[in-house]
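Worked example

This section walks through a single chain of length 373. The input is the sequence exactly as stored; nothing has been trimmed or padded.
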Amino acid sequence: MTFDETHIEQLVLDELAGIISPEDSTTLKRLLEEYPDAIAIRNAIRQQFSGPEEQAFLALLPEALPIEKVWARIRKRKWIRISIRSGITFAALALALGIYIFFKPAGIKSPKADVHSLTLKTVALQLPGGKIVSLGSGQQHVNVGGASLNTKEKQLSISGQAKGSNMATLIVPPGKDYQLTLSDGTSVQLNADSKIQFPVAFNGHTREVIISGEAYLNVAKDEQRPFIVHLSNSIIQVLGTEFNVNTYSNDKVALVKGAVKLSIDNTSVLVKPGYVASYSAEKGIQTDPFNEEELLAWRQGTYVFHAATVQELCKVVTRWYGINVKYDNTTTGQRRFTGYIDRRRPISHFLDDLEFTGHFNYYFDSDSTLHIR
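Given that input, the structure is written out below as tokens.
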């Protein structure tokens, strides 16, 4: 087997992206065994993508450009050899690829990120000013204008009092969940594939955050400063309460206790405890009673289905496990299922159970995409 530096670089990049085929994986392994220089190339490339900011950058790429196109450009360019030898920054790589990452201002809906195997495996925090920090399981400490942001065991808390209303963004990727305690003591539990934009300090007459995805909030009581949650198409006004919000499909708020008001344009509905209010362009605002143990089961790592279609449950699989899903037989997606997913068990257990009961057959291809047939 001949030594081809460019070929090795492409194989390593495919391996890093998680899109390497079994045949190419075998080829790369043999090259690493035969050529010491191949190991040096692999280590250098891995180092280029190992930092927290680089990982956070890669996680956010799908919002600016389809990730497959990003990696296709990377593999075709000669930047990797230049970066290894000269220490080119990752920001320069972003400019070279023509990629721009930005967060839309409050009140504007941000595009939902596509799920891909490359998606970040840890939670990302964008600080005021744009710097991105990857939040692992260890302890971290960041100072922002007099406030202290501390992380520990999947939790981010804010202490101290910063001046101004600098906004930060917490991004929870598919396959993860996270806990946030805001500066006023409000706790927010974020489900997978969710984001919250929040001020480092609440210095105004209101306390306002922006949420996409799903989150459970326990709002600290402050009668002088109402708590306001901006969703995709609606606004929730709060004084002191516990509730769940969900924007995966339509805006929904499920009230556990207290009082909230859901507002869309000129229409408002006061939600009672034990009821969920949902909004859609077709039906407007509707309120219905909900089962707390089922609707909030995601907080304990389970998801309960009642006569849900296979297509609906696969959306949960995508969020919770970060897996792409394709239907080899489109009619299979309309079959219905009642049961639950336990996030603490491997996804194969859930899929095997469905296959055993005859709901569908499945397989994973070389790109780790789940095929339903």
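What to look for: The longest strand covers residues 302-309.
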